[in-house]
Amino acid sequence: MRLAVVGATGVVGDTILRVLEGRGTPISQLDAFASRARDEALHFRGAPLAVRAATPEALAAGRYDAVFFASSDDASAELAPAVLASGAVVIDNSSTYRLDEGVPLVVPEVNAHAIAPGDALFPVANCSAIVLVMALAPVARVAGLRAVRVATYQAVSGAGRAGLEALAGEERDAFSGGAGERAAESPFRAPIYRNVVPQVGSFDEFGDSGEEKKVVAETRKILELPGLHVAATTVRVPVRRAHSEAVFFKTARDTDVAELGAAFAAAPGVVFHEHGIVTPRDVEGQDLVHVARLRAEEGSRRHFQLWVVGDQLRKGAATNGVQILEELHARGRFTAREAVQEAGV
Ligand SMILES: NC(=O)c1ccc[n+]([C@@H]2O[C@H](COP(=O)([O-])OP(=O)(O)OC[C@H]3O[C@@H](n4cnc5c(N)ncnc54)[C@H](OP(=O)(O)O)[C@@H]3O)[C@@H](O)[C@H]2O)c1
């Protein structure tokens, strides 16, 4: 396959390269793009990888089978149409197209059936929503879902390189005798070092943040439950990598911890911890989502709680996109183009 990654110098773009490296994806060409060309090269499978400036012309001329976008909403809106017009598949980590009518929002373990033969545009869902639906889908399958409430504990790398640099800068300031004041270029509203910031994205007139609205709308779309009651409070915490979520849910039918635990144990992509805890540091670099602390509320057969943790750069972004690519490849989506390329046409 001929692939490109737009935003390859960012944290999600870098993770896409590492995920592709680690899997058996058949790749004949891989090109890296960012906002501007760079002298210093990235690396892929041990070879240097030049970084080029992303323009509609350069992306269309590459005759790619698929292009990953890991840049920004604006860049996806500007560049993706040219890529689609060139006949390539777009796998887009931005939020630009996620809620568009007729565009599938796919988490392969949950709703691979949403992919139709002609689809070419595949947004990757919000990282917190992906971690959440990985935990909710097994519940929905065995007992149905009536309502979900979630509080997130989101890593700083969820805000990209700038988020990692803000925490590191504030740590350096504190370790050198300062107060760990908010870093000058921080994407966060308050210092993140030794702190917790209950705002991810900007607030609307009702006080809901952008991240909270994404979690609500995307969870409904992926689970195909448009009427599901979902309420979210999203919070940034001084963790480098992996998002955690405390989830409170009501099922549609009576069930119990044993039945739900068995559903989690059988769910693809999920590790179920019947006992003990799991923390973000335990899951850094992993593709699996971990569920723990499953319990009923005061003996209820409808109201339950759980704790879920997933590496948002892997399963919450890069891995989910690569899984979509693999799903398309397994369905023979690229076979005709590959044959043409091999023939040198
Ligand atoms: N971080 C996460 O956990 C996460 C999870 C899910 C989804 N996402 C989404 O994934 C995307 C990337 O996020 P990130 O966290 O990786 O951000 P990041 O670390 O800030 O990286 C952004 C990347 O986008 C590139 N870029 C910016 N403007 C561009 C343009 N006009 N044309 C081409 N490339 C451009 C940057 O290139 P330069 O180096 O040249 O500036 C850089 O490579 C965003 O849409 C984000 O919302 C992020």
Question: Main attributes?
Answer:
345 residues, alpha/beta, Rossmann fold, Dihydrodipicolinate Reductase, domain 2, 2 domains, seven-stranded mixed beta sheet, six-stranded mixed beta sheet, 23% strand, binds NADP nicotinamide-adenine-dinucleotide phosphate
Describe this structure in words.
It is a single chain. The protein is of the alpha/beta class and 345 residues long. The protein has two domains: 2-96 and 318-342, Rossmann fold; 129-312, Dihydrodipicolinate Reductase, domain 2 (2-Layer Sandwich), CATH 3.30.360. The chain is 35% helix and 23% strand. It has helices at 11-22, 56-61, 73-85, 108-111, 127-143, 160-175, 210-223, 257-266, 280-283, 314-330, 335-342, and strands spanning 2-6, 29-34, 38-44, 47-53, 66-69, 89-92, 121-123, 145-153, 229-233, 243-251, 270-272, 289-296, 303-310. The strands form two sheets. The chain has a seven-stranded mixed β-sheet with strand order 3-4-2-1-5-6-7, sandwiched between helices. A six-stranded mixed β-sheet has the order 9-8-10-13-12-11. Helix 1 packs across helix 10, helix 5 (127-143) runs parallel beside helix 7 and helix 5 (127-143) packs across helix 8 (257-266). The longest helix is centred in the middle third of the chain and has 17 residues, at 127-143. Residues 6-13, 33-36, 54, 70-72, 75, 93-94, 127, 157-158, 160-162, 312-313, 316-317 line the site of NADP nicotinamide-adenine-dinucleotide phosphate.
